[in-house]
Amino acid sequence: MARETAEQLDLELTEHNDYLRRVGGAPPPGAEAPAPYRLRTPTPRDTAVVGRRAAQCLVDLVASSGAPVVLALLLVLVPIGDTASLGPVQLSVAAVLVGLVALGSYLWYWVIRPSRARGQTMGMRLAQVRVVAADGSPVGLGRLLVRWLLLPVDLALVGLVSMAVGRYHQRLGDRLAGTVVIRD
């Protein structure tokens, strides 16, 4: 009976590793999955990382704003000819350009990069936390997009209050996306 159970667990782990290989980030065939890849539903203790998340958020806000801030400063501080002769059309084009760069930069930093980096932004990596689906599986682009879209709401102290009172320490974006942030 114990042998059947062990074989069943090996089969489940193999199937899980095959799934992870399809979505990216799994170990190569034949290699044992490292601990973070073993599917396990996170517990409230796993998610008790509110202090780490606050520090991570500050790091991520600074890191993700780098490209838009540099571009805006270049457009404002580096005069292109006579800046007094810039009309409303040129200023509007510059504003749209900065907005598009900001949108692309934030989308890459908060959604695309974490989907390919085990659910971690640079700040999360430094704070040794990562985001996973509520069942412990790797997080996908859709869930990361929901979290990112609700980030402005969560930054207005809603997220901190939500993390402080919730059993799994989830901000509003986590609750609606079905994700949790755990120790890595």
TrEMBL record:
Protein keywords: Membrane, Transmembrane, Transmembrane helix
Compartment(s) where it occurs, according to its Swiss-Prot or TrEMBL record: Membrane
Start and end residues of each stretch annotated as Disordered: 23-42
Membrane topology designation: Multi-pass membrane protein
InterPro entries membership: RDD
Residue span, RDD domain: 48-178
Transmembrane segments: 61-81, 93-112, 145-165
Gene Ontology cellular component list: membrane
Main location: membrane
Protein name (Swiss-Prot/TrEMBL): Putative RDD family membrane protein YckC
